Fold this sequence. Notes:
The chain has five helices and 18 strands. By secondary structure, it is mainly beta. The strands form six sheets. Strands 3, 4, 5, 6, 9, 10 and 16 form a seven-stranded antiparallel β-sheet that branches. It has a three-stranded antiparallel β-sheet with strand order 12-11-15, with no helix packed on it.
Amino acid sequence: MVLHAPSARHLATHKTSSGITLAQGAIPPCSAAASVLRDARDTPAPKPACETPRTSIRPNPGVALPKTRPTPQPLRAAPTGAMPVMRRYEVSSLGKNGDIVESRHVAPATSLFESAFSAFARGTLLTTSDGLCAIEDLVPGMKIETVEFGARPVLWIGSMTILPEAASDDPEQTRMTRIMADTFGMGRPMADVMAGPGARMLHRPAALRELQGKGARSGQVFTPVADFEDGMSAIRITPPRPVTVYHLCLDRHASIKVSGLDMESFHPGLGLEQRIGPNALSVFLSLFPHIRSLDDFGPLAYPRASLATLDSLTAA
Length: 316
């Protein structure tokens, strides 16, 4: 069967860079959607809007021979516009059958999303049931030593890349905190620690030292590491080059041993569903394959409070 093209008098045409002839003014498939991702703070991939999320499953190698995951690609700043800035997030989670599921996601580059991926810089040492392990060598299924519950399995590890000059809804999201060795006592930390904007540390403030108990009654709270900046032993810095940062979820919220410090495992906090809309909540939960609802994160092990809030209690 022979098809006759319309007369050139009625339909002007042009050729795309790939040699396809289109009607004048027609938009090639996926170009509108792809432009959104090209504006994102990320290295563009071929036709990103047309791709399905990249997910791979591999057998759990166990704790003896952990494998390092690929480093996330850096992201690009987007020009000012109506569309939100997006970025790439890398996720590694423990499947129901014990396999490790790795996936790549594109989601908003807001502090709410980034805080789930930005606690510990590459090279940070965590205490596992088999000894010290760098965060980049950790894999789901390995067990992390917690202060409250002993060794608990890692269910989820997220990572992203902090770009110093990238656009952000919160400039503090591109800064990190360097904690010098022995800042909080001998071996706390054992060596310098580079903490990201999503990191919180467990401590007992002076205003709550009279409390004796467990959890919220213990007088201990999680406070953002950035609040401990003093310009001498805890220094806020803007990294000179891209830095890969990580966070992790256990089977329950807890404080974990990080180079001698008690740091917080990830938890989205209470009342998240009241702070964001249903669409944003759906995207957020999609980053956690092991979670079906916010209730699955469980309760907070300890309350959270900034140093400013704690100082106000002391003054009162």
